[in-house]
Amino acid sequence: MNTQLFLKLISNLLDIPVFDGSDMDDTLKHMEENYCINKILQPMYTADALHYLIRSAKPNVLYEIIDYLNISISFFIFDNKVFLLGPYAKKEFSEAAVDELLIKNKLPNSMVMQLRLYCTKFNIITTNQIQNTVTQVLSALEDVTISFDYRRLSGFIADTSDINSDEKILSETNFSEIYRRYDSENRFLNAIRLGDINNVFNAFSDMVQNAFPSFATKEVKSYYLSSASFSIIIALTRKAAEQSGLSVITINNITQKYVQRFSVNNNKSHQNIITDYIVELVNAVKEHRLAYASYSEPIIKAIQYMDLHLSEPIGINNIAAAANLSVSHFSRLFKSEVNDTPINTLAKMRCKKAATLLKETKLSIEEISSFVGYSDNNYFVKVFKKNYGDTPSEYRKGKPTIS
Fold this sequence. Notes:
Blueprint: H1 3-14, E1 18-20, H2 24-35, H3 47-55, E2 61-66, E3 71-78, E4 81-89, H4 95-104, H5 111-119, H6 127-142, E5 149-153, E6 172-173, H7 180-194, H8 197-210, H9 218-221, H10 227-243, H11 248-264, H12 267-292, H13 297-308, H14 316-322, H15 327-338, H16 342-360, H17 365-371, H18 377-388, H19 392-398
Parallel strand pairs: 2-5, 5-6
Antiparallel strand pairs: 1-4, 2-3, 3-4
């Protein structure tokens, strides 16, 4: 078949864009960049989503995507080639319907104008027009009678009863299972943000199971154990942990440790490394949320600043600046929330770190004193005894490991 002639005829007859999917990656990237105005409203219009749909497609079936905005794309496989038609509109633009859609998806009203301009630039075309034009042109070019089955891809829409009644729906297929992957990814990342260790692995298991169609091979499904996939998991989970408020320094320390382990171990241990990584990261988020649940954002910033700069000669001015408050305002706020002064809290944090080092290392007391921010060893001993009731030497000899 003369592909270029077919594309030109369809485009002219229907007055819509038509694409040859020979270079699939570039074509789908172009579709997303030029026609996916909002991924929440058009989840099937991303390059990744289109790729999954096309991979699941069967020859001689015309698939029509209908999004929340009633803007459609059709695609089909014929003669081992993929063709994409559209976008095109299914009905006239309705501002009331768009308002309802924005409210439902918690999107700003300021998008109405943008969506109106987007939706009204496409011709309104029915399914019958698409199907009849494609079959007639192909039959003329191939000089044989050609017919297509029809599948409507609207699995992500709860109610499809508003589809035009004059459209002949040969049959419907719900492709929502393909998008379970996205739901499970969101549940996985949300569990990390919440420090929900009880549910994070259920979500992760679902994410892995839903990542591939049922016909995927065992080798393909092992993708989640590859270094490339682990890098993606690291990137996703780092952002989720950061959104919880966990210090980026803590996140980086955890991720770097497991990236290094992953690089030197064989495939058999990769699954254990991924599991251990998720456990440590989620527990760190959980501890952070428990520790800072009752504190305001300025106080959280101040405490994190002190934790990250224990070894440095910081004072109240530095801590207040980290919280973006004046010294007087910060001191009052800190006292009201923490029930202690910033300087006393810093001393407790330094002593807690010192107590851990006293039990877990053989460093000298002078070295530990300097490391936690006390250049005067005698002063450090005095502060430590005030907080723990013993000198550092006595604590090292008789006290249990600090928790």
